[in-house]
Design brief:
Blueprint: H1 3-9, H2 20-33, E1 42-43, H3 46-53, H4 57-69, E2 73-76, E3 80-83, H5 98-104, E4 111-112, H6 123-137, H7 151-163, E5 173-176, H8 178-190, E6 196-200, H9 205-213, E7 217-221, H10 228-235, E8 239-242, H11 256-269, E9 273-276, E10 301-305, E11 317-320, H12 323-336, H13 342-351, H14 355-380, E12 394-398, H15 404-413, E13 416-417, E14 419-420, E15 433-437, H16 442-458
Parallel strand pairs: 4-13, 6-7, 6-8, 8-9, 9-10
Antiparallel strand pairs: 1-3, 2-3, 5-11, 10-11, 12-15, 14-15
């Protein structure tokens, strides 16, 4: 196992109380006992792990000594440090991505700036739930299993795209349990181990994890996929993935002409192009979103979700694609999931026609929070480069020195969880960047900026930038 993968699996190891070596040993102990670090797993050398975690070497040495005395690890001159015991015949199927660890290991004393989603259901959502209660109460003769989604919601999503200039039939829509399931289904349905995927570099961590989970070879291009035609000729990809509106994490927006060219080039080359529209409705006041890529080619596959636009707890996503693809994905899904929550889908069917209005109502507050966090960072950390965006939920910050991976550990010790840029970059770049979201209320953002400032003052970067996280261990 690559050293940085061990570091990523450590998660929020340093956010507790006590000596750092004891906290590090405690977290490694849990990973070993739970099987996350199986017997025989090589652990990083003292200096490498210390550099990656931005701590002194003595901290790592003391933690390793403690675990060795417990019989959990073995240290031998010349052969390094390993988890005690014999390697298993089969690797553990888990994720080490920080964006997921942020959800798996929440702590009330840590301000989470890593995973971005609205944390308060809008009044329109509760109104929609109230509206569907009579229909739900009158339901008979319906077991509620819909692998492709409830018909009412599928019709509503199809109409939503037709209203945006994208001809869409009912059979072209599949409802999923959030956008993450949509990406996982597409990866499973369209990729084989060793297939090449073209995506932006940097890009969305969940998409990167979904493709790597299918053992795909990911090739990165800059945001907007410039040079797409040449990359297709060189790599012969089985799939391409792009976030054209408020690209995650950079916030960039692909111009209308570039959208047309990309969609038409992918169609001519026979490469399935997945357009992630999860953030497309999150423009700030006055911003006009260009037409979707699907408006330029019937071959484009679109992913959408209400979890980023309405509320994180509303686990409603969808895939818009050709009917044969939808039918194939439904057969894959039925093995694992017979369908999503019907009341949530009925409420979503009421909400989708109002989605643009809901997002427009919430846009001024989102922009105000964006402006507030940027102003606080400019005041407290003027050396940081924090470009403004015209929508979305996140800021892509370039650090003046050091690397995002080691600084993320320093920030965590000061009570803030952020995403290091290297984990979002399939090419292993963006080491000098971090991603933070601006969805918290202003007082929390002010406190987050203060903690980040304290972390930056205490930060001592490693001699060399920490390497990028490896592919997902499967």
């Amino acid at each position: 196992m690559d050293p940085i993968n061990v570091a990523e699996r450590l998660g929020r190891w340093s956010a507790g109380r006590g000596a750092l070596y004891a906290l590090l040993a405690a977290r490694l102990r849990c990973l070993i006992d739970d099987g996350e670090l199986p017997p025989g797993t090589p652990l990083p050398p003292d200096r490498v792990l210390a550099s990656t975690l931005a701590v002194g070497r003595s901290t790592v040495v003391a933690a390793y000594d403690l675990l060795q005395s417990e019989g959990r690890i073995v240290r031998r001159q010349g052969s390094g440090t390993r988890v005690a015991g014999h390697p298993p015949t089969r690797p553990v199927d888990t994720t080490s991505a920080p964006v997921f660890l942020d959800l798996l290991e929440p702590r009330p004393d840590v301000i989470a700036l890593a995973c971005a989603a609205p944390d308060t259901p809008p009044v329109e959502l509760t109104e929609c739930y109230a509206r569907i209660l009579p229909e739900l109460a009158a339901t008979i003769g319906d077991i509620g299993y819909y692998p492709t989604g409830h018909p009412r919601l599928r019709h509503a999503i199809a109409e939503y795209y037709r209203s945006r200039g994208v001809p869409t039939a009912f059979e072209q829509v599949m409802v999923t349990t959030g956008g993450q399931q949509a990406l996982s289904l597409l990866a499973r349905g369209l990729l084989q181990p060793g297939d090449h995927v073209l995506m932006e570099s940097p890009s969305s961590p969940p998409a990167l994890e979904a493709f790597r989970a299918e053992a795909a070879v990911v090739q990165g291009l800059p945001p907007g996929l410039p040079g797409f035609a040449a990359a297709v000729r060189e790599h012969r990809p089985a799939l391409a993935y792009v976030i054209p509106t408020f690209q995650n994490p950079t916030g960039s927006v692909l111009a209308p002409l570039a959208r047309r060219r990309l969609a038409e080039t992918a169609a001519a080359a026979g490469v399935p192009l997945v357009e992630d529209e999860v953030l497309a409705e999150l423009g700030f006041p006055g911003f006009s979103t260009p037409p979707p890529l699907a408006a330029h080619s019937a071959a484009v596959i679109t992913v959408g979700s209400l979890s980023k636009t309405v509320w994180g707890g509303l686990r409603i996503g969808w895939i818009r694609a050709a009917a044969p693809i939808i039918a194939r994905l439904a057969r894959i899904r039925a093995v694992h999931d017979l369908g999503g929550d019907v009341p949530a889908q009925l409420a979503a069917a009421e909400l989708v026609p109002r989605l643009a209005a809901v997002c427009a109502r919430l846009a001024p507050e989102r922009q105000a929070r964006h402006d507030h966090l940027r102003a606080e960072l400019a005041r407290l950390l003027p050396d940081w480069h924090v470009p403004a965006v015209t929508g979305g939920q996140t800021l892509w910050v370039r650090l003046p020195y050091g690397d995002g991976t080691s600084f993320a550990q320093a920030a965590l010790r000061h009570g803030v969880a952020i995403l290091p840029g290297s984990g979002l970059d399939p090419n292993g770049g963006s080491a000098d960047h971090i991603r933070v979201h601006f969805l918290h209320p202003p007082d929390i953002l002010t406190e987050a900026a203060r903690r980040l400032t304290e972390a930056w003052r205490a930060y001592r970067p490693p001699a060399r930038p920490a390497p990028a996280p490896p592919a997902l261990a499967i």
